[in-house]
Amino acid sequence: MIIRELITKIGFRVDTGKLRATERRLVRLKKIARATTQEMRGLAASVRNVGLGMSAFITAPIVGLGLAAIKTTAALEKAKIAIEVFLGSEEKAIALQKELLEFAKKTPFQVLGIQETAGKLLGVGIAANKIIPTMNALGNAAKGDSAIFQRLVLNFGQVKTQLKLTGRDIRDFQIA
Questions:
Q1: Domain residue ranges of the chain, discontinuous segments joined by +
Q2: What pLDDT sits at residue 129?
Q3: What single string gives the DSSP state of each residue in 99-136?
Q4: DSSP three-state, residue 14
Q5: Radius of gyration over alpha carbons of the chain, in Å?
Q6: How far apart, in Å, are the Cα atoms of 131 and each of 71, 76, 82, 99, 176?
Q7: How far apart are CA 7 and CA 146, in angstroms?
Q8: Region 61-90: what's the mean pLDDT?
Q9: Measured between alpha carbons, how far is 77 from 96 in angstroms, rounded to an integer?
Q10: How far is Cα 138 from Cα 152, in angstroms, rounded to an integer?
């Protein structure tokens, strides 16, 4: 409408039929532009949702993996410190830790479990040079089952600290 008024003021003769057709085209073009804008907004929302989904399925597991690595590292450090306290020196602890890593490579048990078990055995008075043979014997008795291995270590430690083997201890070994 504004264009028609402007053209009339300037003094041009206007073919109103063609002008109305042009205006109708402009109205249709505006509708198409609005619809396209709406479609683009929908597409942008979809892309954003895909990005969020990717974040949930990619970023979250990576963060979780990082947290697990930090927790495992902290647990390994804690086990190393316990071994160091029992042995009285960092050098001896590092040497035993290297032996434990080699031992863990040959067993179905995890490194962290091996190190914690070594700390428990040192705590009940097993000498550092007897840790690997003791764990090997207990691991063989457990037939590679980590839960049974931990129960056997606990039972062994109880017998070691009591300095005697009772009927109950024998039963505990059989149950393990």
A1: 2-52, 71-175
A2: 92
A3: HHHHHHHTSSS-HHHHHHHHHHHHHTT--GGGHHHHHH
A4: coil
A5: 38
A6: 25, 17, 14, 10, 20
A7: 92
A8: 78
A9: 14
A10: 6
166 in the Ramachandran plot: left (φ > 0), alpha (ψ -120 to 50) or beta? beta
Structure-block tokens of residue 92: 């001896």
- Name residue, tokens 């109205």: 27
Beta carbons of 123 and 87 less than 8 angstroms apart: no
SS3 content of the chain, % helix, strand, coil (to 5): 85, 0, 15
pLDDT for residue 131: 92
How confident is the model over 85-124, as pLDDT tens digits? 888 888 888 888 889 889 988 888 888 888 888 988 988 8
With the C-alpha atoms ordered 117, 118, 122, 126, is the resulting torsion angle positive or negative? positive
Asked if the model's pLDDT at residue 77 lies above 70, the reply is: yes
pTM: 0.56
At 168, list the tokens. Answer: 């109950």
Contact 86, 123 (CB under 8 A): yes
- The whole-number pLDDT of residue 123 equals 86
Q: Give dist(CA 93, CA 78) in Å, integer.
A: 12
Q: Say if residues 138 and 146 touch (Cβ distance below 8 Å).
A: no
pLDDT in tens, 118-168: 988 988 888 989 999 999 999 888 888 888 888 888 888 888 887 777 777
